[in-house]
């Protein structure tokens, strides 16, 4: 009875969250049943129930595969570069936007920096080719006019990871400021007044008031980002990948595409995906425990 009374009392709130709950149930939890094929020699004609069980054979083959160290290195390095260089950028940009006192100018700038998020990776890759092509790229043409030699951006394995990181920063930094700006809006204004009365400069107010006020948000987003450390974005890597940089560009997503989609190795590619998920779970649990040890709230 108490449950029904609670449902009647907050009926519209439950209806509001219903689409989100259905989304996760249908597209996240129900498909989890498919992980069983990572322990089978799955055949679409035989189905889940009749396909023979092979245990951990696919995982053994993955770890013994000579490509595994390269895939793991590339995936981890791209993710770590995104965490080190991309993750702080929305925070820095949000701090800069938050310091603007003209609301109209602030809204215009916010709209401008949000725009790249709505561009597909196909468009971003096309822009990159127009800018960075060695023969017809705008940047190399400018270098030639300035008397320098053209630089090989697109087929140089030494700068491939950096190029992906710069693309991610340009595309997603503005969109990432939304959460941080919302968190900054919740900081008590009286704290700023007290800091000004104590003679704190704008920089000191940011350091001692704003950043501590949004620290829990930064920690939470960092933990969530660590949970997807094995996901580097298939579209971006696939579109920028070529034979000259394949040794540093091949990641688990492109590997699954070749084996799972092109070659039809459904069980093997599912095992790769399950391995990635386990690594992400370990990172989330470990980072959450570490955050709690240092006095943060964590995720749970």
UniProtKB/TrEMBL annotation:
Keywords, sorted A to Z: Membrane, Transmembrane, Transmembrane helix, Transport
Localization terms from the record: Cell membrane; Membrane
SUPFAM superfamilies: MetI-like
Short name of one Pfam family: BPD_transp_1
Segments forming domain ABC transmembrane type-1: 72-287
One annotated Gene Ontology cellular component of this protein: plasma membrane
Keyword Oxidoreductase annotated: no
Biological process (GO), any one: transmembrane transport
Primary location: membrane
Transmembrane intervals: 12-39, 76-97, 118-144
Membrane topology, as annotated: Multi-pass membrane protein
Record carries keyword Cell inner membrane: no
Gene3D superfamilies according to UniProt: MetI-like
Entry-linked PANTHER family: POLYGALACTURONAN_RHAMNOGALACTURONAN TRANSPORT SYSTEM PERMEASE PROTEIN YTEP (PTHR43496:SF1), PROTEIN LPLB (PTHR43496)
Protein family per UniProt: Belongs to the binding-protein-dependent transport system permease family.
Protein name stated in the entry: Sugar ABC transporter permease
Taxonomic source organism: Paenibacillus roseus
Classification lineage: Bacteria, Bacillati, Bacillota, Bacilli, Bacillales
């Amino acid at each position: 009875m108490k449950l029904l009374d609670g449902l009647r009392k907050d009926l519209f709130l439950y209806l509001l969250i219903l689409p989100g709950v259905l989304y996760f149930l249908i597209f996240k939890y129900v498909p989890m049943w498919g992980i069983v094929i990572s322990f089978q020699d799955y055949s679409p004609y035989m189905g889940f129930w009749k396909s023979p069980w092979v245990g951990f054979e696919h995982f053994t083959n993955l770890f013994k595969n000579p490509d595994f160290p390269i895939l793991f290195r590339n995936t981890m390095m791209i993710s770590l570069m995104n965490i080190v260089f991309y993750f702080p950028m929305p925070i820095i940009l949000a701090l800069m936007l938050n310091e603007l006192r003209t609301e109209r100018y602030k809204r215009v700038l916010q709209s401008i920096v949000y725009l790249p998020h709505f561009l597909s990776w196909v468009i971003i890759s096309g822009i990159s080719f127009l800018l960075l092509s060695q023969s017809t790229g705008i940047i190399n043409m400018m270098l030639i006019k300035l008397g320098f030699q053209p630089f090989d951006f697109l087929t140089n394995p030494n700068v491939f990871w950096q190029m992906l990181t710069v693309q991610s920063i340009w595309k997603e930094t503005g969109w990432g400021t939304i959460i941080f700006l919302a968190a900054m809006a919740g900081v008590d204004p009286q704290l700023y007044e007290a800091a000004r009365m104590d003679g704190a400069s704008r920089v000191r107010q940011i350091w001692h008031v704003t950043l501590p006020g949004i620290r829990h948000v930064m920690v939470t987003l960092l933990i969530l980002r660590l949970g997807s450390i094995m996901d580097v974005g298939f579209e971006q890597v696939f579109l920028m990948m070529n034979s000259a940089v394949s040794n540093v560009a091949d990641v688990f997503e492109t590997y699954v595409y070749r084996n799972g989609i092109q070659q039809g190795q459904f069980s093997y590619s599912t095992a790769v995906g399950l391995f990635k998920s386990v690594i992400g779970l370990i990172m989330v649990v470990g980072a959450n425990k570490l955050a709690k040890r240092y006095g943060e709230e964590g995720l749970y």
